[in-house]
Amino acid sequence: MPGSAMHNRNRIIPFPGRRGSPRLVVCSVCLRVHVDGAWMEADDLIRRLRTFELGDVVRLGGALCEPCETELRVRRHSDSETLAA
Predict the structure, then answer these.
(1) What distance in Å separates the CA atoms of residue 59 and residue 23, rounded to the nearest whole number?
(2) Residues with Cβ within 8 Å of residue 18, at least 6 apart in sequence
(3) CB 26 within 8 A of CB 62
(4) Residue 25 carries which DSSP code?
(5) Phi, psi (5° rounding) for residue 11?
(6) What is the spatial distance between Cα 72 and Cα 60, in angstroms, rounded to a whole number?
(7) How far apart are CA 13 and CA 16, in angstroms?
């Protein structure tokens, strides 16, 4: 690299988080979002909440929705299937 400046792939880029920043819970497997007690597709929620117009970055929290959790439990207890997750 030119000069002594090297690219640091482990550097964390801070986003200015504010207390009012929206936080969404997202399934780590299927990427559906938990809102108002139900799981919905992310693109539907983005359009509904118009998150692309917000001034703050939307914070995401990871979780597992019920269908994905059930599927993972079944796969982990299955003797015939090789685990991929």
Answers:
(1) 5
(2) 56
(3) yes
(4) E
(5) -70, 135
(6) 22
(7) 10
**Is pTM beyond 0.70 here?**
no
Give per-residue pLDDT as tens, 23-74: 889 999 999 999 999 999 999 998 988 888 877 778 889 999 999 999 998 9
In DSSP terms, 61 is beta-bridged to 25
Altogether, the residues listed in the chain come to a count of 85
Question: Could you give the residue ranges of the DSSP H alpha helices within 1-85?
Answer: 42-49, 66-77
Question: CB–CB of 24/59 below 8 Å?
Answer: yes
DSSP state of 55: S
The amino acid sitting at 48 is R
Q: Is the dihedral of CA 79, 81, 83, 85 positive or negative?
A: negative
